[in-house]
Structure formats: C-alpha cells, structure tokens
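Listing S7. Sequence submitted for prediction.
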Amino acid sequence: MKTDFTKVKNIYIVCGRTDMRKGIDGLAALVQDSFELDPYSDAIFLFSGTSKDRYKCLYFDGDGFALLYKRLDQGRLQWPKNEQQVRNLSQQELRWLLEGLSIQQPKAITKSLKGVF
C-alpha cells in the first residue's frame, strides 16, 4: 500500500488519552460511536495514549483499513488534552504535531496568496 496522505481530505485528531491496546475495530468503533464520524470516509484519524511518545493512525484506503503505529525514540507529542473533543487538522498543524510542536502556533505566518499577484 502506497498512499499519498497529503491528498487525504480530512485529518482528525482524537484529543485526550486513547486506550492504545485498541486495534482497528476498536478505533473505528470509537470514531463512529463517540464522535459520530465515518471511519470509511477519506480521512486520517490520529490517537495517542497517556505517555504521548506514541500514536496510531487509522485510514481506510477503499478496500480495507490501515493502522500505523509509531513510537518516538526521543521527545513527546504536544497532544491536546480535551478527552471529549476531536479536531480537524490542516496539513501544517499535522506537521507541527509530528515535529513535537503544539498544533496552535499563534506567531506562525499563515500562507495566503490572495492578493499577492
């Protein structure tokens, strides 16, 4: 499976702590039952546990689910803490998160080409 995740329509982060023992079925049920989102949609769903040094990524590629599990050797993720929230991230916010930064960067310059040319 080779997928260009930069073309995925939505990136959702499940804030707070998720039980990292859950597999594909458990995470898909969480997405559907707790947050009323469609796990079969063109979306990536991100989950993290208490230690914040690992995350899981759930994605449906059209004929089945893929589950990516990553554990960081050094550092921790700046994972949002609100247990009852799921957020839609931009590609830039996803990069910040996976680089160990907060997804809220108040001093970041937002790229806008409107009116530049």
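Caption to Listing S7: primary sequence and predicted structure tokens for the chain studied. The chain has a mean pLDDT of 87. Residues 11 and 90 are 7 Å apart (CA to CA).
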